[in-house]
Amino acid sequence: EPEVTQTPSHQVTQMGQEVILRCVPISNHLYFYWYRQILGQKVEFLVSFYNNEISEKSEIFDDQFSVERPDGSNFTLKIRSTKLEDSAMYFCASSEKFSPLHFGNGTRLTVT
Amino acid sequence: DQQVKQNSPSLSVQEGRISILNCDYTNSMFDYFLWYKKYPAEGPTFLISISSIKDKNEDGRFTVFLNKSAKHLSLHIVPSQPGDSAVYFCAASRSINSGGSNYKLTFGKGTLLTVNP
């Protein structure tokens, strides 16, 4: 079964550094998303992306965050200047129209 | 943000018996509900969904029940198997039909199900 793949599985970075989390969505999916889960808390919506632009974003997704689909297969989340509170598991997901989301295995981001 | 609540952090059942996982929501605008299963070190995996126009949806061993008046849904797994042991997340959204989107999911905190052999 096709799956969403995320790299790296674990990223450690220093506060203030830029980090890029990478995702390869399922190939025939056109809708892409990022969610995150801070340890001990709920999975939270960050952003959705369709047709090369952001469809919707949450209040968490401030100017420090950006998303990009640089080519036909990758979907990235960039955090420009990481803060301690950005430490979380970041999940990429993709879907067809009006279909359930398929999630990747996540990237654990640790900001020190 | 307590719009979706799973009040039981854990549940333990015997193999072959029924597992019932519960979820409550407070936002009356939610009209599309999903259950996801999550194993350690993996992402959430879609299990089953239900639209608010239905009160029941069944897929093999999994059945989801929706009680709109009580703002309550439940997932029944019959019979439970040891491989079902995982964290189960309830999620809700407003569908396209109600001016939302099916993809902006609000998750509960999850219930850890343990099925004992």
What can you see in these coordinates?
The complex is a heterodimer of chains A (112) and B (117). With 112 residues, chain A is mainly beta. Chain A has one domain: Sandwich (Immunoglobulin-like), CATH 2.60.40.10. Helices cover 0% and strands 51% of the residues of chain A. In chain A, the strands form two sheets. In chain A, strands 2, 4, 5, 6, 9, 10 and 11 form a seven-stranded mixed beta sheet that branches. In chain A, a hairpin with a 6-residue loop joins strand 7 and strand 8. Chain A starts with a strand and ends with a strand. The model of chain A has no long low-confidence stretch (mean pLDDT 94). With 117 residues, chain B is mainly β. Chain B has a single domain, classed as Immunoglobulin-like (Sandwich), CATH 2.60.40. Chain B is built from no helices and eleven strands. In chain B, the strands form two sheets. In chain B, strands 2, 4, 5, 9, 10 and 11 form a six-stranded mixed beta sheet that branches. In chain B, strands 1-3-8-7-6 form a five-stranded antiparallel beta sheet, with no helix packed on it. In chain B, strand 6 and strand 7 form a beta hairpin. Chain B is globular, with a radius of gyration of 14 Å. The mean pLDDT of chain B is 93. The chains are: A mainly beta (112), B mainly beta (117). At the A-B interface, strand 4, strand 5, strand 9 and strand 10 of A face strand 5 and strand 10 of B.
